[in-house]
Design a protein that fits this description.
Part of the ABC transporter complex HmuTUV involved in hemin import. Responsible for energy coupling to the transport system. By secondary structure, the protein is an alpha/beta fold. The chain has nine helices and twelve strands. The protein has a single domain, classed as P-loop containing nucleotide triphosphate hydrolases (Rossmann fold), CATH 3.40.50. The N and C termini lie far apart (40 Å).
């Protein structure tokens, strides 16, 4: 379990989080959603341990973050921020290798790197200069890097990926390919993914639970069907939406329409 309790955080004299609590059990994907400035990325940083002042209020697998050592924490938690800047001409393979902290033989390391790259459809880029890749290609390489970090470690407890807008630069097919990989990982590994996401319909299709934020506070947390309610979303995003049922069974959010304009 990765959880935070009653987080209130002030930055530059402004309250950015107010009494926020969150619980992410293993074996699930939790999506943090809300409009710009709602506090989503800040909450993810809190869960990552970026703010020492509240580390006693965050717990990973029953232990407060303030009690974890960095090396041990890297076995159970990997973070992909919204933007990753590299200034050196590393190959894609070297980028992945930089995230592997556990000792491995050269052969095992090469196999591991290849498997992680193939999972995100970037195996063919292995020897490319990372700086020459498109934004979407770089994003998929970074996803391979953080998963490679966790998968290289012998873990005795659930592991967590913390991802901030991890598909913002991806085309439609790769968005779904990435979330299919993440969904399979949480179900087979019994670990967890916490992802900041703007796309309500991606969240509806792949997330197990949602946390909806606005102005630094939690508006609603629960199942996809509980949170994706038309009136709640219209109030939070300050824009009219309608929610209908997708034929496959998840909520489908349609923006800018009234109930009378949507066929039953």
């Amino acid at each position: 379990m990765l959880s935070a309790h009653d987080i209130t955080l002030k930055l530059s004299g402004r309250d950015v989080l107010s009494q926020v609590s969150i619980a992410a059990p293993p074996g699930q994907m939790l999506a943090i959603m809300g409009p710009n400035g709602a506090g989503k990325s800040t909450l993810l940083k809190v869960l990552s341990g970026d703010f020492a002042s509240v580390n006693d209020q965050v717990a990973l697998n029953g232990q407060r973050l303030s009690h974890w050592r960095d090396g041990a924490l890297a076995q159970f938690r990997a973070v992909m921020p919204q933007s990753v800047q590299l200034n050196f001409a590393f190959t894609v393979e070297e980028v992945i290798e930089a995230g592997i902290r556990h000792p491995m033989s050269l052969q095992a390391r090469q196999v591991h790197i290849g498997r992680m790259l193939e999972m995100f459809d970037v195996g063919h880029l292995r020897q490319r200069n990372y700086l020459t890749l498109s934004g979407g290609e770089q994003q998929r390489v970074q996803l391979a890097r953080v998963l490679a970090q966790l998968e290289a470690m012998p873990a005795s407890a659930p592991r967590y990926l913390l991802l901030d807008e991890c598909t913002s630069s991806l085309d439609l097919s790769h968005q779904h390919q990435v979330f299919s990989v993440l969904k399979a990982w949480v179900s087979t590994d019994q670990s967890g993914v916490i992802v900041v996401l703007h796309d309500l319909n991606l969240a509806a299709q792949y997330a197990d639970s949602l946390l909806l934020m606005d102005q630094g506070q939690v508006v609603k947390q629960g199942s996809v069907h509980d949170v994706l309610q038309a009136q709640v979303l219209s109030d939070v995003y300050r824009y009219p939406v309608q929610v209908i049922e997708h034929p496959a069974g998840w909520p489908l959010v349609i923006a800018g329409v009234s109930a009378s304009s949507v066929c039953p």
